[in-house]
């Protein structure tokens, strides 16, 4: 799936042209569109496009986004202008105009990758500096009220789905803080198996098919059925088999690393 780079433009917004929802997707995998997260994200976005949504996809690896300095100037200024001059200048405009934010990230230490967290931190220009009580909790109101949805797509290398619990809780809190509806989570545990099994012709095509249908359903019905989400997350292999094959692969990686460094088995002074 094609990704975009930031370009300044004065063209009308897609929704002004067609009346279809604007979907802004951010892929925070360092592997961009060849990683495990993309195996779920890309068909999901394809399904959205098939239903007429205006979908833009950006990869954090292609963006220059500095970390937030916490000076709050962007919250005070009506235009939300940040002290940084980087790709967030244009991306924040796209975020403001998005009806659906699709945030995709592999699981890194129980949460999003660093670039995704930096991007999320830099979304504070959407908010006023003043605070209020909303749903029994202190929050910042939006500068420009807008109905917006947040959807999470993630993959991880561990077998159990509960490894995503902290990440999901974080995204739910983030959605509340930007006054958005948290509308779904597409999670793929032991994701490293999926790509290889697809390549081998194993019977796993139902997983990307379910992700594609989830995208279509989100645009048609503003929801994703639990059955589709369960299919996307379903077990691929038993846990013990996954651990065995993963460890075998890691051993091969380790041996190759040592061999490439001149310290592998057979080297005169090298031991593993």
Written description of the protein model:
39% of the residues lie in helices and 15% in strands. It is globular and about 55 Å long. A 5-stranded parallel beta sheet has the order 2-1-3-6-7, sandwiched between helices. It has a two-stranded antiparallel sheet with strand order 4-5. The protein is α/β, with parallel strands linked by helices.
Brief descriptors of the model:
7 strands, 15% strand, 10 helices, single chain, five-stranded parallel sheet, Rossmann fold, alpha/beta, two-stranded antiparallel ribbon, 272 residues
SSE string? HEHEHHEHEEEHEHHHH
By CATH, the architecture of the largest domain is named: 3-Layer(aba) Sandwich
Structural class: alpha/beta
Corresponding CATH superfamily of the largest domain: Flavodoxin domain
Main β-sheet description:
5 strands, parallel
**Helix percent band:** 25-40%
What would the average pLDDT be, to the nearest integer?
Answer: 91
Counted beta strands: 7
Beta percentage is 5-15%
Q: Identify low-pLDDT runs.
A: 8-17, 266-272
Could you tell me the radius of gyration in angstroms? 21 Å
Spatially, the strands of the biggest sheet line up as: 2-1-3-6-7
Number of H- or I-type helical stretches: 10
Query: Kindly, what is the distance between the CA atoms of the first and last residues, rounded to a whole number of angstroms?
Result: 41 Å
Q: How many domains make up the coordinates?
A: 2
Annotated CATH topology of the largest domain: Rossmann fold
Q: Name the assembly state.
A: single chain
Identify the overall geometry: globular
Query: In the CATH hierarchy, what is the class of the largest domain?
Result: Alpha Beta
């Amino acid at each position: 799936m094609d990704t975009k780079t930031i370009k300044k433009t004065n063209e009308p917004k897609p929704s002004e042209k067609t009346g279809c929802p604007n979907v802004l997707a951010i892929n925070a995998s360092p592997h961009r569109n060849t990683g495990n997260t993309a195996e779920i994200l890309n068909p999901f976005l394809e399904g959205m496009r098939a239903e007429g949504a205006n979908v833009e996809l950006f990869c954090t690896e292609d963006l220059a986004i500095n970390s937030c300095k916490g000076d709050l100037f962007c919250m005070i200024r009506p235009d939300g202008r940040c002290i940084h001059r980087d790709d967030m200048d244009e991306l924040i405009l796209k975020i403001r105009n998005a009806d659906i934010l699709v945030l995709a990230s592999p699981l890194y230490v129980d949460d999003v990758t660093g670039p995704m967290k930096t991007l999320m931190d830099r979304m504070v220009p959407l908010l006023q500096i003043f605070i209020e009580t909303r749903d029994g909790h202190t929050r910042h109101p939006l500068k420009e009220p807008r109905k917006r949805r947040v959807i999470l797509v993630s993959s991880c290398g561990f077998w159990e789905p509960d490894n995503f619990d902290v990440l999901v809780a974080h995204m739910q809190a983030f959605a509340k803080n930007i006054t958005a509806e948290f509308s779904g989570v597409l999670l793929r545990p032991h994701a490293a198996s999926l790509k290889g099994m697809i390549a081998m012709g194993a019977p796993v095509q139902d997983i990307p098919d379910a992700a594609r249908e989830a995208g279509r359903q989100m645009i048609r019905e503003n929801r994703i059925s639990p059955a589709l989400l369960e299919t996307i997350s379903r077990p691929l292999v038993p846990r013990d088999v996954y651990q065995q094959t993963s460890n075998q692969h890691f051993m091969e990686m380790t041996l190759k690393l040592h061999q490439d460094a001149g310290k592998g088995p057979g080297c005169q002074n090298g031991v593993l």
